[in-house]
Amino acid sequence: MYPHPLATRRSFLGGLAAGAATLGWPARGTAGEPERPLGVALCGLGNYSRGQLAPALRLTRACALRGVITGNRDKGLAWAREFGFPERNVYSYATMARLVDNPDIDIVYVVTPNALHPEHVIAAAWAGKHVICEKPMANTVADCNAMLAACRAARVRLSIGYRLHFEPHHRELRRLAREGDFGPLRRLSGGLAFTINRRVWRVEKALAGGGPLMDIGIYCVQAACLAADTDGAAHATFAPVAVRAREHPKRRADLFRDVEEGITWAMEFANGAAGEFSTSYNGGEDRFRAEGERGWIEFAPAFPYGGIQIRTSAGAPRIGAAPESQQALQMDDFARCVREGRESPVPGEMGRRDMVILEAIYRSAAAGGARVEVKV
Ligand code: NAD
Fold this sequence. Notes:
Bound molecules: nicotinamide-adenine-dinucleotide
Radius of gyration: 21 Å
Largest sheet: 8 strands, mixed
Distance between the termini: 21 Å
Shape: globular
Oligomer: single chain
Number of helices: 10
């Protein structure tokens, strides 16, 4: 477990009460009052928070930016001025337990390096706040279990930052998988790669948990599970039965000391779907394809924040305009889940499922490509 240094019995019990009260909120204010947008605090003010989430929180309707958690107080105070929230809503990682006393904040969005997700998610849960945690959920399945247990005990909701579930082209993939226009999507493939050529936390195993598989290969895993799942009833835990993987030879062993530079893996599903995927920090690739007996759908690019393009064997599908912000849709949906007492379509259990798959892929690569069973 990850007891927060400042967490006390009082704050934990207070957290339980606050969490339960939030879960019980009505869908709308009474007597025609406008909904109060739920308050979000971003935890970790790096590139993704600055470039994507903060701008998205200007577009959201069900939630709004009301606080930050940062290691740099001056930066936090500058954000308070820029986004118009009070200075008292600026926290450090060490003072997160005090969130329990702050009714402005309903949701903490954890956007720190992967290894820190568990302690920050658990601290937020102990303070009675609902949590969105960025992908990958954590570096190990054991950490995911601890995070899920803490959120359950505190009765707060936990969701993972899987923005593409709210994106219309990926929703079309899910529709095709379930409605079967092309028959069950059985042959899957994809790849996602970009180049890293300097030392950043993403190439340090202690902080990132692994290399590109953890960071971006996870998008191929997500899309493969979405495409192979013809039923959707247990979509958060739908997984392949087995994987095989091979790590790419390293061209920059100096940079990728203890993480893979690239990896290729195969996924095998119980219903006969299968696919091969690759990811790398040394290249450029962004694609996904799913094929059934009667047709196919192809994404290129498949996974960016905007500009996703698809083609199908039946021509251009009718899809509404791309959203201004995938992240705004994602955060609004979570705020509505909290208000309405619904489970998120991308819950913590899905983040855990993906870690089970990623761990199996790493085990297979370590065993020279052996078939490794996946047990979610
Ligand atoms: P970043 O390096 O730009 O930001 C990380 C933040 O964490 C920084 O503000 C840094 O100061 C802070 N931090 C706190 N403790 C730290 C420590 N010990 N070492 C390093 N930094 C520390 O990273 P980012 O690109 O914003 O990624 C943050 C998280 O968001 C990651 O989990 C990443 O996978 C995820 N992410 C998701 C998406 C998406 O599309 N869903 C996109 C980018 C990043």
